[in-house]
Amino acid sequence: MRRSKRVYPIFRGIIFIILLSIAGCASKQKKPRQSTHAKESLPHDPYSAPLHAASQKAKAPDFSAKLLNGKTFKLADDRGKVVVLNFWATWCAPCRAETSDLIQLYNQYKNKGVAFLGISVDKQGKSVVVPFVKKYNIPYPITIDDGHILKKYGPVTGYPTTYIIGPKGDLRYFTSGAITVKEVKPRLNKLLKEEN
Q: Sign of the C-alpha dihedral, residues 91, 157, 119, 94?
């Protein structure tokens, strides 16, 4: 009897740790987040994953990828533009939650010097990604990563994960979690002004 009383709290602790580890992509963000931003005077959205400013300059790893529409995306071709890379999956609830914000941002900035690329990590490939893209009417380019992009930008701790690359090809912002228009917009505007 004594032995079972000792084992029960340990077992409960293990279950708690497992639940915490899978919670990142299990629920939509409903409550405000604590801001953990670096020294930056831009406004922050407490309902968004915080976009962290890069602490030092680092070139974004170059890559090319085949898009769902059959064309090829080459990061180097977008030098001079701000580039938003969004790693996501169809099974990820926060990824679904941020989709409308990404669509809105794409529609606002596609003709202003900002390129977007959705990078699906779904192992089932087109069979799940194509229906998702149709269901949500996603207008920005989508690729299905075979692991080579993730290898260059990883390790990724959760999905969605977003990187924003500056016009000179350097990594400027990153986050893991669902983002909002209110969080992303001032950072895109800042990067666009820097180039002018």
A: positive
Structure token pair of residue 34 = 């604590």
Q: What is the pLDDT of residues 42-78, one digit of tens each?
A: 888 899 999 999 988 899 999 999 999 999 999 999 9
The total of other beta-carbon atoms located within 10 Å of residue 58's CB is 11
Using DSSP bridges, classify how beta strands 114-120 and 142-144 pair: parallel, antiparallel or unpaired. parallel
CB 43: neighbour CB atoms within 10 A? Answer: 10
Residue 77's nearest CA partner among 89, 67, 68 is: 67
SS3 85: strand
Per the structure block, which two tokens stand in for 175?
């986050």
First CA to last CA distance, the chain: 74
The domain containing residue 101 runs over which residues? 2-195
pTM of the full predicted structure? 0.80
Which residues, in sequence order, are bridge partners of residue 14? none
Query: For the chain, how many structural domains are there in total?
Result: 1
CATH number of the domain residue 20 falls in: 3.40.30.10
